[in-house]
Specification:
Elements lengths: L7 H24 L5 H13 L5 E2 L5 E8 L14 E9 L2 E14 L12 H6 L18 E5 L13 H13 L3 E6 L6 E5 L16 E4 H8 L10 H4 L12 E2 H9 L6 E2 L6 H7 L8 E8 L3
Helix pairs in contact: 1-2, 1-7
């Protein structure tokens, strides 16, 4: 499969799109430190849904980004393998030159008090009535809560060797399509937020952490040495990927633009009729909750 040299203006625009997505998600986490992880996924999808019109560049290359959100069912062995699927298509003259895919399994960092609003089975059973949950009236809205984030904080929704953990490993072994953990973090650490807020605002420092990507194979190789139901900390992510430019994993925009769009990461497939692609994207019981397709059309 050929390598395709992408013009700087096209690559830069896509990089900026993922960087602004990273910033938007991170700002939400900083302002709402107990936000549940699916809400951050929806922010990811909503961000790219605003870029659906094809964008033409001076070089006559064209980029279109399509999104589709299915919602949260637990699919493969009753567990979703990934929250977001990324598709990449290079096209020219009505023909697809190259196609790639990768899967992102999202996990948010929990604050030191581990107080996070979780999606529970009852949320799906009673629907909108959850918004009037009488349990929430027991505590005044003026109650002050401090949320602290540092290297000791855990990705508490990752449980080593539990059902989802093992399902992700099994899926990769059976399908060969790489899965990546997408970690939602605050803009920097240490970070503290107190609610109620006095105002919604961007963090007062540059984004030096934010959304980070680590291949599931690398993370699992490390976590397989731990006891069952071990929850990894942010500090344990720091040196899993050896890079001069990145600690705690690759930034979202670097992963998308330099690695996935390049020749390093992701799964290259020859045809959309590939059974692995069909079972992933064309069945309601597939292993993902949402998908983003980036179509890049080369000049004739």
């Amino acid at each position: 499969m050929q390598n395709i040299e992408i013009p700087h203006e096209v690559k830069s625009w896509i990089n900026d799109a993922f960087a602004s997505c990273n910033s938007r998600i991170t700002q939400k986490l900083c302002n709402i430190p107990n936000v549940h992880e699916p809400s951050l996924d929806m922010t990811f999808i909503e961000h790219f849904s605003q870029l659906a019109s094809p964008r033409i560049f001076a070089s006559n290359w064209i980029v279109r980004i399509d999104t589709h959100y299915l919602g949260g069912l637990r699919h493969f062995n009753r567990w979703e393998i990934a929250d977001i699927g990324l598709l990449l298509f290079f096209r020219r003259g009505g023909k697809i030159l190259k196609s790639k895919v990768c899967l992102l399994q999202s996990k948010r960092l929990y604050p030191t008090n581990e107080v996070v609003r979780e999606d529970l089975k009852i949320d799906y059973e009673i629907g909108f009535a959850r918004l009037a949950d009488p349990e929430d009236t027991a505590v005044s809205l003026s109650h002050m809560t401090e949320f602290n984030f540092d290297d000791s904080c855990r990705y508490a929704a990752i449980l080593t060797k539990d059902r989802q953990y093992e399902a992700i490993k099994q899926y990769y072994q059976e399908k060969g399509i790489p899965v990546y953990y997408q970690f939602y973090n605050p803009a920097f650490i240490p970070f503290t937020q107190t609610t109620p807020l006095t105002n919604y605002a961007s963090p007062d420092q540059d984004l030096v952490l934010g959304t980070r990507i680590i291949p599931a194979t690398i993370l699992h190789r490390y976590l397989d040495q731990k006891d069952k139901h071990f929850k990894p900390t942010l500090g344990e992510m720091k040196n899993l990927i050896i890079s001069e430019n990145f600690h705690y994993g690759w930034s979202l925009e670097f992963f998308a633009t330099e690695l996935f769009m390049g020749c390093t990461e992701g799964y290259v497939f020859e045809n959309i009729d590939d059974e692995r692609i069909q079972s992933m994207f064309y069945r309601r019981s597939g292993p993902i909750s949402a998908a983003i397709a980036i179509s890049i059309e080369l000049p004739e």
